[in-house]
Design brief:
Shape: globular
Radius of gyration: 23 Å
GO molecular function: oxidoreductase activity, acting on the aldehyde or oxo group of donors, NAD or NADP as acceptor
Number of strands: 20
CATH architecture of the largest domain: 3-Layer(aba) Sandwich
Largest sheet: 7 strands, mixed
CATH topology of the largest domain: Aldehyde Dehydrogenase, Chain A, domain 1
Organism: Paenibacillus foliorum
Strand order of the largest sheet: 14-15-16-13-12-17-18
InterPro entries: Ald_DH/histidinol_DH, Ald_DH_C, Ald_DH_CS_GLU, Ald_DH_N, Aldehyde_DH_dom
Number of domains: 2
Protein name: Aldehyde dehydrogenase family protein
Oligomer: single chain
Keywords: NAD, Oxidoreductase
Bound molecules: nicotinamide-adenine-dinucleotide
CATH class of the largest domain: Alpha Beta
Distance between the termini: 57 Å
Length: 484
């Protein structure tokens, strides 16, 4: 792909080559930090998805399903290496697409993406399988075969990182893929086609179709030759994909929305919790699915926490993502920017007090910048406390007892993650066990071991990713029973 100073045009990548849509059409890719057009994106549709699935099916049947583990591991390792070699270029593209600070793309998004390929290269090279002996003189072996063609539908907030967390285990198990980047953030995913080819991935194993959710996304969700869908995005989109996939009973892995509680007891290390809350509230403009957007503080330290947290938040630098001292960049699109401001207005109508922020960031003529915003004075029934805003906006509410805060924490239909802050380890464990979340941190946040299960409870997801959990999803697990 040709990359220029502004960005790049994004074609589809089908059967090992970059191609235009069957029905010609493109849309503008806009840099949310400058509102400049940085490229044209193919506006794909059903015909492009059909071609991609055909290529993926042929690549699966013609060899990839029989590929050796050592071959797949070597290719995955090479993909990871090439991503690291091109780290600066990929980081710049990620920042131009998303508006996130360049230091974040460089230090988190891109290296963590590479890490997924390296991790699964090692994982499949050393993994064994289960065997269950029976006293009657029989042995049951568990075997795993690839599924076939897998569809992947991705969000805009961590484009290459989240895509890689799915793609690496999917390829590791010998599947082929048709994937769709978010329409707002196609550049790094599109470039991944070239990287995979250079790493030696056979043509047709990975296919990338650009376009809108309603066309490309729906065509993937409905396609009869796609066996499984790995989707990350909004809960409402997940429901629609589930309906579309029901026709041929597709296997589903869903990583959906969240409204994660950050529970702070009076015996916490206050300075540490203030610093971590800054990150867990506003990193990536508050658009990490694991961000803690509902902060609950025990009453004895409530005022002190609010005061310190507001003071530190006011020091956050909002603006040009290319500047190394920028803390908070631009929101992904004009639509999202307006939606976040609408939520802040709603908080005012619901009786909320805007402790800081609450408006467009000052000093920015162009770009979709919103100040980090802290809201107090809202109660548990307010929409801003229950609905995912996915922007730099958090609420803080006081609580008195453990029982009360557990009830608050579990009071939404989401259940993705939580963090609990206390020096009392018995309490920490007692509370964590009662929180309805796929992942609960104690005295930390965003610390992830790739071997552990990751996913959401309730309407935050279906299934778990990570280590063996991902490999189980991307494979048909069957039993061979031998009588001896
Ligand atoms: P989104 O649901 O709007 O879009 C995600 C993807 O789905 C995009 O590629 C989009 O084009 C596609 N899509 C849209 N409508 C579709 C349809 N009808 N059929 C098929 N595909 C369709 O989500 P988003 O705004 O890109 O991402 C933000 C959301 O993702 C937030 O809710 C966030 O919490 C969630 N998220 C969750 C996790 C997690 O691990 N649980 C991680 C990141 C983001």
């Amino acid at each position: 792909m040709e990359i220029n100073k502004k960005g790049m045009d994004c074609l589809h990548f089908i059967n090992g080559a970059y191609v235009s849509s069957q029905e010609p059409g493109t849309f503008d890719n806009i840099n949310p930090a400058s509102e400049e057009v940085i490229g044209q994106i193919e506006d794909g549709g059903k015909a492009d998805v059909d071609l991609a699935v055909k290529a993926a099916k042929a690549a699966f049947d013609n060899g990839w399903k029989h590929s050796k583990i050592s071959e797949r591991a070597a290719i995955l390792r090479k993909i990871g290496d090439l991503i690291l070699e091109r780290k600066d270029e990929l980081a710049m593209l990620e920042t131009m697409d998303t508006g996130k600070p360049l230091w974040l793309s460089t230090n988190v998004d891109i290296p963590r993406s590479a890490g997924s390929y390296h991790f699964y290269a090692n994982f499949i090279s050393t993994m064994g399988t289960e065997a269950y002996p029976m006293e009657v003189g029989a042995m049951n072996f568990v075997v795993r075969r690839p599924l076939g063609v897998v569809g992947m539908i991705n969000p805009w907030n961590l484009p290459l990182l989240l895509l890689s967390a799915k793609l690496a285990p999917c390829l590791a198990m010998g599947n082929t893929v048709v994937l769709k980047p978010a329409r707002w953030t196609p550049m790094t995913a599109t470039l991944l086609g070239e990287i995979c080819k250079e790493a030696g991935l056979p043509d047709g194993v990975i296919n990338i179709v650009n376009g809108a959710g309603r066309s490309v996304g729906e065509a993937i969700a409905e396609h009869p030759d796609i066996r499984a869908i790995a989707f990350t995005g909004e809960t409402s989109t997940g429901k629609s994909i589930m309906r579309a996939g029901a026709a041929n009973l597709k296997r589903l892995s869903f990583e959906l929305g969240g409204k994660n509680p950050n529970i702070i007891f009076a015996d916490c290390d206050l300075d540490e919790v203030v610093e971590t809350s800054l990150r867990s509230s506003f990193i990536n403009q508050g658009a990490v699915c694991l961000c803690g957007s509902r902060i609950y503080v025990q009453r004895p330290i409530y005022e002190q926490f609010v005061q310190k947290f507001v003071a530190r938040t006011r020091q956050q630098i909002v603006g040009d993502p290319l500047q190394p001292n920028t803390n908070v960049g631009a929101l992904i699109s004009k639509q999202h920017y307006e939606r976040v401001l609408e939520y802040i207005e709603l908080a005012r109508q619901e009786g909320g007090i805007i402790e800081t922020g609450g408006k467009r960031a000052e000093g920015q003529d162009r770009g979709y910048y919103v100040e980090p915003t802290i809201i107090t004075g809202v109660d548990r029934n307010c929409r801003v406390v229950n609905e995912e805003i996915f922007g730099p906006v958090v609420t803080i509410q006081p609580f008195d007892t453990e029982e009360e805060v557990i009830q608050y924490a579990n009071g939404t239909h989401y259940g993705l993650s939580a963090s609990v802050w206390t020096k009392d380890s018995s309490r920490a464990f007692r509370v964590a066990q009662q929180i309805e979340a796929g992942l609960t941190w104690i005295n930390t946040w965003f610390l992830r071991d790739p071997r552990t299960p990751y996913g959401g409870e309730k309407q935050s997801g279906i299934g778990r990713q990570g280590g063996m959990f991902s490999l189980d999803f991307y494979s048909e697990v069957s039993t061979i029973c031998i009588k001896y």
